[in-house]
Amino acid sequence: MRLETLDAWFRSFLHLHEFDSIDPSMNGLQVGRRNREVQRVAFAVDACVETFHRATVWNADILVVHHGIFWGREQAVRDAHYARLRHLIERDLGLYAVHLPLDQHMVYGNNAQMALALELEEIQPFGSFRGKNIGCMGSFATPVSLDSVVTRLFGSSDAPLAVLPFGATQIRTVGMVSGGGGSSLDEAVEKSLDLFITGDASHTLYHRALESAISVVFGGHYLTEIWGVKALAEKLSREYPDVETTFIDVPTGL
Questions:
Q1: pTM higher than 0.90, yes or no?
Q2: 148: burial class by Cβ within 10 Å (0-12, 13-18, 19+)?
């Protein structure tokens, strides 16, 4: 596969251009490579030296991440930024980033994949951000406990940063916005949802949730955003069997 083919493949269903006006991330190819052939593609949440190192050890040609290294402002090439660019260029490791398009996508996105893991029904867009719905919402065919939701998504009740059990004892309706989506709590309250799931924990949301009698799960930025890159890796390997893929897990605990 050529690098240009991979880029066109991503753009064919992620529609990166639609987010140019609202996403500070430089979605798409952030760092190219001298060799335009791509046979091994690594996927990860974050662009960082640790992830770059593991991708290099695996002999990746390109690394696809959710959080890239360019965020809509000029940045001097020195210190940590220099170290990251140096590693990529010296090892001829390409870097591709997909930020909000991967939160938003209703099939392969972080939120859609969490909804799929929960086996939610009647899934629809949710979580308005600058005119676009970034998350999704849905309902259980049969109400389930809050502990069951947490365990299905994160493996154990201890994994999330915090759980605020302020709503119904049995959960039927859920809204979710991965990562830093706490501002969508108001929308969840307005839609009378039983549960709101996001990544980053926020002190300011505690009393809003308590007074609105809605449960909230702060799953952690990282753990709510592993879903999309994993789904992309599976889709790529399925549609291009000659391309090897891997997911590089570098959890932050946050």
A1: yes
A2: middle
What architecture does CATH give domain 3-98? 3-Layer(aba) Sandwich (3.40)
pLDDT in tens, 226-242: 999 999 999 999 999 99
CA distance 130 to 163: 27
What pairs with residue 95 in β-bridges?
Answer: 31, 63
B/e letters for 237-254, b = 16+ CB within 10 Å, e = fewer, are eeebeebbbbebeeeeee
Distances (CA, A) of 192 to 115, 197, 206: 18, 14, 17
Task: Count the Cβ atoms, other than its own, within 10 Å of residue 141.
Answer: 10
| Residue 42, C-beta contacts closer than 8 angstroms, at least 6 positions apart | 54, 55, 58, 60, 62, 63, 64, 245, 246, 247, 248
What 8-state DSSP symbol labels residue 203?
G
CATH assignment, 103-218 = 3.40.1390.30
